């Protein structure tokens, strides 16, 4: 029997494994889109989560969607703010008593156009949020307990734009290329106590990526061998795998999630 796309996605949602029973995750940039889908997947598999985002209102809504205080807490703030990072990690510990998983999902892309014409200050901000903040979150969770229990894992959300040139979003792509390299470097340095991996999605149907497909979704989807754009749940499933014990002999890797578009030389 062949399952269509929607049915297949429903099956994944309906019968999740329980790989994170008793474990606690911090997921950054998780009030909507990919980050919220990741938090949902982890909670569905037994985790309790601390989610972060800049705006308190959407973050409160996300916590409610995740089941409220029994399974989630939210801490609003900027990913590149040291005080916010410390507060978020301490809140997770106070609420749930341990740390097992960090998902660095926060990312920004305010710079469009050729790299050669990019404003230096704007480019620096992209790297601060997309790369330096991920390093700083890693330092914060390590300092406060990640790696003290077996099964500790970090998953960074990169992009296919970091794997090959991406017209118009070169600064963003350069930051994600740096994040991919940082992933491998951290994996080497933090083994064997903490595994570090990344995912690199192509175009996923989120508000963040709307400009890449709005008004021409079918046309863009036809460039993908699998015939569709990505869904946040596609990324969430891959992140959950890499963060779980099912991936216990995997570290330093970047899993490409692109519907096969890279086989045609596209970047998604």
From TrEMBL:
- Entry EC no(s): 1.1.1.100
Whether Oxidoreductase counts among this entry's keywords is yes
Oxidoreductase among keywords: yes
- Enumerate the UniProt keywords alphabetically: Oxidoreductase
CDD domains tied to this protein: SDR_c (cd05233)
State the source organism's domain of life.
Bacteria
Q: What class of enzyme is it?
A: oxidoreductase
Q: Where are the transmembrane segments?
A: none
Q: Can you provide one Gene Ontology molecular function annotated for this UniProt record?
A: 3-oxoacyl-[acyl-carrier-protein] reductase (NADPH) activity
- Family membership, please give it: Belongs to the short-chain dehydrogenases/reductases (SDR) family.
What NCBIfam families does UniProt report for this protein, alphabetically?
PRK07231.1 (NF005559)
Q: Which PANTHER family match?
A: DEHYDROGENASE/REDUCTASE (SDR FAMILY) MEMBER 4 (PTHR43943), DEHYDROGENASE_REDUCTASE 4 (PTHR43943:SF2)
Q: What is this protein called?
A: 3-oxoacyl-[acyl-carrier protein] reductase
Q: Give the source species.
A: Kineosporia succinea
